[in-house]
Structures are given as C-alpha cells and as structure tokens.
Design a protein that fits this description.
With 573 residues, the chain is of the alpha/beta class. The protein has 24 helices and 17 strands. The strands form 4 sheets. A 7-stranded parallel β-sheet has the order 11-12-13-14-15-16-17. The longest helix is centred in the first third of the chain and has 17 residues, at 3-19. The radius of gyration is 26 Å and the shape is globular.
Length: 573
C-alpha cells in the first residue's frame, strides 16, 4: 500500500471515532499519523520493514502495529470493526461541504440518515432544519453541497493524477519497444482537476507496449485491451488510457490529444484558411502529407510561434503566437525562494531547521516562515511571546548560514471586520505579513468584499493569501467581488498569492491575466506544512504558466537582495 492509501484508512478511522463521540484526542491521533505517513520520505512498506514507523511524529507502539497489519495484509481489523458500527453509506455524508462528523452524527442518530439519498430526502422534507444546531440556512447549504458533490463526481485533483501519469510514462518510456511517450489531455495543460489520465506513445511493437501498460503494478483492472489501445482502472480509482500510434503521427496525435477542444477547433480552422487539413493523423494539402518532427514544427507550418500546452485554451494564444507575442513563461527553476510556509511552531510537521534544510536542497536562497497568528487557536497560532521566541530562534539559525536566509513572516487571520490579528507593534516585527481568511466563510458578498478590501488597506500587509478560500472538489469560493479586491490590491501595492497547495490553486489561473493587467505583483507559495509540502510549489508554477505569467510577474523569482528591498519598501509605505 502506498502513502495515500494508508493515510486514507487512518483518516477514515478518525472520522468514524468522531461519529461515535470518542475522545477527540483519540481521533486526532489518527489524523496526526495520517499526515506523518503522507509526508514521510519513504513509502509505508519500507517504513514497516525497517522498523522506522515509530520514528514518525505521533506514531507509537499501538498505532505502528495497526499500520503494519494494514501494510502487510491490505486490511486492518480495527478499521473494519469501526466501519461495521455504521451503515456503509454514512462516510459519504462526510464528503458534503460543511457537514462535519458532529452534524453527521446528529442526522444519523436523530433522523436515521445513513446515505446521501436519505440526507437529500430529509432536507427536502424540511426535517433537517428542525434539528438543534441546524436551521433552514444549514439545510439549504447541505442541499447545495450534495448538488456540488454530485457535479464533482468522477473528477480528481491534478496532484492525485499527475504523479501516477508520470510513473506510467516513465515505465513505458523504458520499454524496449517505446519510441516516444508523453502525457496528454488536461493533465498536460495543467488543469486543476481532471477526469482521467491520457497517455500517448509511438512504438516499434505497439502490442508489446499496451501489454506492459495493462500489466503495470498500478493497474487494478483492465477495462479494454487491444494492439494499439488500452484502458485501465488504477488502484487509486482513476482511469488511464494509452494510445499507440506510428512515430510519424505522434506530433499530430499529441497536439490533438492535448487539446483543449476549443484550441483544436481554432487550429483546424486556421489550417482550412490556408487550404490545409489538420487532424490527429497529420497535416495535409489534398492527399499530400506534410511531415512534422514535433509540435513546434506543426505550429511553424501554420505561421505560429510554439504555444506551450498550458496556454492551449483558445483564450488568445493563437493570435499571440501569430504576432510572435507568446511570453517566456515562468519556470520552477526561476524561483529563488518562497514565503508561505508553516513549521512545528504552529500546525506544521517539521521544524525550522528541517524546513530550512529542505529549502536549501531545492536550491532556494531564502525561505519565508509564516506560521499562524494568535486568532488561529485551532492551528496553534503564535502568541505575542511565541513570536518573540520564534524570531530569536530564526536569528540563531540565520547566524549559521552563509548562502541562505530564513525570513520572519506570519500568516495573520483577516478578522470578520477586516482587521488583522495582532496589534500594530507586533505586526511591525515581521519582515512581511500574509493575510488570509480562515473563518466566517458564509458572509454575504458585500460584507466579505468589504472585509477583504479593508484588510488590503492595512499599511503593513504584504501579501493576500489564498484569495477565494476555495478547496477544490470540497468547498466553493466564498461570495465576494473579485474585481474590487484585485483593484484594492493594486491600489495599495499588496502582493497576491498563487497558493500552490493542490487543494487550493488559488488565485485561479483564469483571473491571473486580470491581476497582471492591474500591475499586481504575484508570489507562488506552497502553503507548506511539511518539507514534502514545499514540493507543491510546482503546481503553483503550472497555475502561473496557465495565467501567462513571466519571471517579472513573480516576486519570488527575484534574487534575495531584490526581495528584501521590495519587502523593506512595503514596510516603509
């Protein structure tokens, strides 16, 4: 079993314990263990066989025994015992946005609700509104949540699908029959959620390659298998499709298979205007085939500069390519550091020392530490005394570095009235301040907009964090006027974050071009709560590229002296 599978079982146990009304510390222990497994450097089988499980944070003797049983047998008796205490459908209720274990326990015990169908029926009959602690508004939100849940069914986070796709691509590329292998579809365009995994290959022996694909260890079930095509269901529940073509067709099939549909239609129309025909098999004039060695050659034949896959959404990329105006998009290697990271001082899993070491290993010259502020008690937010202690610890660490620096930041809560957590004197202690909304998501649009705009006017605010508050496939953005917020950020010179956490990817790529038009500086932050979480920054780079961002748009693509000068100017503003 891999990390995600083990963590999912532990998280499910935590939820089942909460449903039973168990001591919250017991439930939290399983959540802590799940996070420790997810961020561990080694996979669960190796942790078990080397006896390293108990070295992970929060995993003692009893939990280690349970996890060992799970990894070795694929089952855990304790997990099955907890599941047996409830109807099978009750865990589906926890997927409804805003419906936590306490509320699920209430509807189960008081109304006998044990499935999404039961819950929807109870809401439509008005029964949920009459329960203590619910009300008509909660009932309405539950119905909306069920509708959203169904609309998201069959979709997966980019971060769930992309690593699997890259593993499959690597395995196929090493096969002796393989010529070229690429990931295609919406994954290649870096869409935030996807339905499946598309792989394209050319091979000297297509049947041998499809056999290798169908028998890969990640495969749980073969759905279809032929000499040039195969479809499988992976152990993760994601469908993966492989198509094998002749090598001469590969560039055309890759362009077509990458999409988007709108981009492909626009490209075909451009070919037609030049009395050509473009499809997944080639570029033709009548019956004459024009060979192209790669996608760049296809674009060149049609009078266009190369269009990176992330931009292929028919949102002006073809017109820009015709003018030679496709920008040099930011790359992960351009980044010199990042700002929004958490440590064990609040709700992170790794220490200052460990986060610094991981950042240095990534080639960064600085790392901003932005633990939670005091109002975030649920996340171990720092008191004013702890702020002073953390800064002293950072100073001691910085004294040991020659080519690296930890920056003193904070992720302060934006309170309901738009004020920032901490008093003015405390806020001034930081090198920079990230402000985010973590509560009161149900405010009406006007109130939430006013709240954000007021926060943006604070003279010490450096950066606005995860702007919309969305959690992909879980929670919709809160209601607010994004244009008004972006204009306020531009007016006050506040940096807007591209939150790279794959559950957020916020600001959405669709709005980045407007932010750039307004002259807003952007920062790509992983919102990392562990050393492994720092690697999520790659997903933020993909968002930035989809939003047409270049190095000059990104604050953390600048060298440390320029970053420090920028932060100093902001503090003095």
């Amino acid at each position: 079993m891999d990390k995600k599978q083990v963590a999912a079982v532990l998280e499910e146990i935590a939820a089942l314990l909460e449903l039973q009304g168990e001591n919250p510390f017991k439930s939290r222990a399983y959540l802590t263990a799940a996070r420790a497994i997810e961020v561990a450097e080694r996979e669960p089988p190796e942790l078990v066989e080397t006896g390293a499980l108990k070295s992970l944070q929060g995993i003692g003797e009893a939990l280690a025994e349970k996890i060992t049983e799970l990894v070795r047998t694929g089952r855990m008796r304790y997990h099955e015992e907890q599941r047996a205490k409830f109807p099978p459908g009750i865990l589906d209720l926890l997927q409804v946005p805003g419906l936590g274990p306490k509320k699920v326990k209430a509807v189960y015990e008081r109304l006998g609700v044990s499935s999404l169908e039961d819950l929807e029926a109870a809401c439509r009959a008005g029964k949920v509104a009459h329960l203590e602690g619910f009300g008509a508004k909660t009932q309405e939100n539950i119905l909306k949540g069920i509708e959203r849940l169904r609309s998201h069914a069959g979709r997966f986070l980019l971060s769930d699908a992309l690593p699997l796709a890259l593993d499959l691509r690597a395995a196929l590329a090493h096969h002796p029959a393989a010529q070229r292998v690429e990931v295609a579809g919406s994954l290649r365009r870096h869409r935030e959620t996807v339905e499946d995994i598309d792989l394209l290959a050319s091979a000297t022996d297509p049947a041998a390659l499809t056999r290798a694909f169908a028998t890969h260890p990640l495969v749980a079930e073969v759905l279809a298998h032929g000499p040039t095509k195969a479809s499988v269901l992976l152990q993760s529940g994601i469908q993966a499709d492989l198509r094998v073509v002749a090598d001469g067709e590969f560039p055309f099939a890759l362009h077509h298979g990458t999409g988007s549909m709108e981009h492909n239609v626009a490209m075909r129309n451009r070919a037609i205007a030049r009395k050509l025909k473009l499809n997944e098999y080639g570029l033709f004039e009548g019956e004459t085939f024009f060979p192209c060695r790669d996608e760049a050659a296809i674009f060149e034949r049609l009078g266009l500069a190369y269009i990176p896959p992330e931009l292929r959404e028919d949102l002006g990329e073809i017109e820009a390519a015709e003018r030679g105006a496709i920008p040099a998009l930011v790359e992960e290697g351009d980044l010199t550091g990042t700002f929004h990271c958490h440590t064990t001082w609040s709700d992170g899993l790794n220490s200052l020392e460990e986060m610094a070491a991981a950042a240095r290993q990534m080639g960064y010259t600085y790392l901003g530490i932005a633990d939670h502020s005091e109002a975030a008690r649920y996340a171990g937010g720092l008191t004013r005394q702890q702020v002073a202690e953390q800064h002293a610890a950072i100073n001691r660490l910085n004294a040991t570095f020659r080519d690296f620096q930890l920056l003193k930041g904070i992720e302060t809560d934006i309170l309901a009235d738009g004020a920032l957590d901490y008093d003015e004197e405390t806020v001034r202690r930081f090198d920079y301040v990230v402000a985010s909304v973590h509560s009161r998501f149900a405010m009406d649009a006007a109130s939430m907009t006013a709240r954000l705009v007021k926060a943006l006017s604070h003279p010490q605010l450096t950066m606005l964090g995860h702007v919309s508050g969305r959690l992909l496939l879980q929670r919709e953005p809160y209601a607010f006027d994004l244009e008004a917020v972006l204009q306020a950020a531009a007016r006050h010179g506040v940096v807007v974050e591209i939150n790279a956490n794959p559950r957020r990817l916020d600001l959405d790529w669709r709005h980045l071009r407007r932010a750039r038009e307004l002259g807003i500086m952007l920062a790509i932050n992983p919102d990392a709560h562990s050393t492994e979480g720092l690697r999520d920054i790659a997903y933020g780079v993909g968002v930035a590229r989809k939003g047409w961002c270049t190095r000059s748009d990104i604050l953390n693509a600048r060298p440390l002296p320029e970053v420090m000068a920028f932060l100093a100017r902001r503090k003095a503003a």
